[in-house]
Amino acid sequence: MTAEFEELASLARTTAQEAADLIVQMRVESVEIAGTKSSATDVVTRADLAAEDLIRRRLLTARPDDGFLGEEGDDIPSRSGVSWVVDPIDGTVNYLYGIPYYAVSIAAQIEQNSVVGVVNAPALGQEFVAMRGAGAWLNGVRIHTPPPPPLSAALVATGFGYEARIRDVQAKATALLLPQVRDIRRLGSCAIDLCAVASGALDAYVESGPNLWDYAAGSLIAEEAGAQFTAVPSVMEGRAVLLCASRERFTEFADVALACGY
User: Quick one: fold of 151-259?
Assistant: First the structure.
């Protein structure tokens, strides 16, 4: 399978880079809001739509029998056994405001398991790549999750949705978690948060509500770097809570985070 994964990874990397170049150029020219999603503050830009269209065309031209699941468009079922899960801009509000924490996220999945993941954060100059069973890399250098600090000294990332009822639950849970860790960071991109755990820039991550396209690539990158990841039912019906930390600290972190009400 390694040769197949390498082929998928090469295609994902090339496509993600082209999409990253496109959204950077579009931001230089202008940022236009094309619509909203879950709430009036949850925006879609023309760059989201253009990047997803580019990614869809590149991937399905190269592999026309593959499936495709994107944040902004219609799903396409797979005939090959491979499906692509894509977020053209993870961190759209950051992108809108010129905050550099946004990324193109592309994952290839087989039987609903990610086998290749690419997260390209152009404003940070970071490209994360992983292949199932082969490891994870940042800008071509192999990465490993470092030994974790005690939970009380852990730097933890989280995120908030754009619906008031969801934010209320998330805010209350975060308020309970904050006194038990070093500090909380809210960077605004699930994909980058998971990659930061992989590289050691963060110690752990928890969030209720992200969609598959937000974490399909980043979760594989974290796992292949040595972290542990899971998605379990949230206290909010129909939502999942994502948990990621080093394998040595994962159970303790997950128990504490879930007890806080995520």
Answer: D-Maltodextrin-Binding Protein; domain 2 (3.40.190)
